[in-house]
Amino acid sequence: MKKIIYLACTIIVFYFGINFLVFSAEDNESSDAISIISNDSSTAADAVIELSNDSMPAQVPELSPEERDRLLSDYYSRAFEAFRNGEYPYAALMFEKYLTLKTDNIKIYHYLSQIYLHLKQYSDAAVVLKRATELEPSSFSHWHQLGTAYMGAGFTNEAIHSFEKALEIRPDTETLFQLGLCYERINELQKARELYEYVVAIKPNHADAHFSIGLLDFRTQDFSSATERIDRALKLNPEHPLYLEYRDKVNAAINSSLKDNDTMPHENE
pLDDT band at residue 227, thresholds of 50, 70 and 90? Predict the structure, then answer.
């Protein structure tokens, strides 16, 4: 009986010992698996960092004076060749490249701004001309053209500032007229009218100023004054399509007003 009990105890101890070893082995394998995943993640992160560094643009090596001068000459020649051939976008590109190497050549800003204004790329022209005013803040031309660029791009308040800066440097009827258009655009009609009147007082043959006053009168339904002003503009420029169009509109408004008066009942009726 004792032998049977001893044998049973031995079998039980052996069984639990085997299970303990199996469970320990599984735990070790799980721990190793976690360690491998962790190491793989670290390696992947390192790879991403390396890839990011590799994808960053390398710094452009500093050019020698000789190489820089050669590139400047090449860009300048290419720009003017394209300009002569009417290839304005390519000419602008070459002038832009020129300015990446030499930022203080005021002539290049002038040429580039003229191209952008011609192409009606007013925002680009404004960027170039803003830099030109920083290089030559006392230039009437830079400020006037900057105002033109801002106006074309729809930045009316910036245009007003630029035209006013130009007028501080030199009085000019065309700049006064453009300033009047700016004030008209933001609906400051009295200020606009004063500027137009000032222009025709200085330069009586300024057709656009007469026409603009006529348009203001048309807006307020002062058809008699509108007709007089538009007729003055037409005498100075008889074939201007916009003058002719608005003269017809004023005449049509006058005729419509007369018809309305005829159809109204009179007091004696």
Answer: very high
Amino acid at 137: P
Q: Quick one: tokens of 182?
A: 């700016």
Q: How many CA atoms lie within 13 A of 266 on its CB side?
A: 3
Instruction: Specify the DSSP element, H or E, that contains 153.
Output: helix 140-153
Tokens matching residue 224: 């008699």
Count Cβ neighbours within 10 Å for each residue of 145-158 and write b for 16 or more, e otherwise: bbbbbbbbbebbeb
Give the pLDDT mean for 63-86: 95
Judge residue 166's burial from the number of C-beta atoms within 10 Å of its C-beta, 0-12 exposed, 13-18 middle, 19 or more buried: buried
Q: Which residue, chain included where needed, has tokens 């643009």?
A: 57
- Cβ atoms of 129 and 145 within 8 Å: the answer is yes
Which domains occur in the chain, in start order? Answer: 65-170 (1.25.40.10), 173-254 (1.25.40.10)
**Three-state SS at 262:** helix
d(CA 157, CA 6): 106
Task: Provide the whole-model pTM.
Answer: 0.72
Q: pLDDT class for 265, splitting at 50, 70, 90?
A: low
Residue that has been written with the tokens 């952008």 in this structure: 116
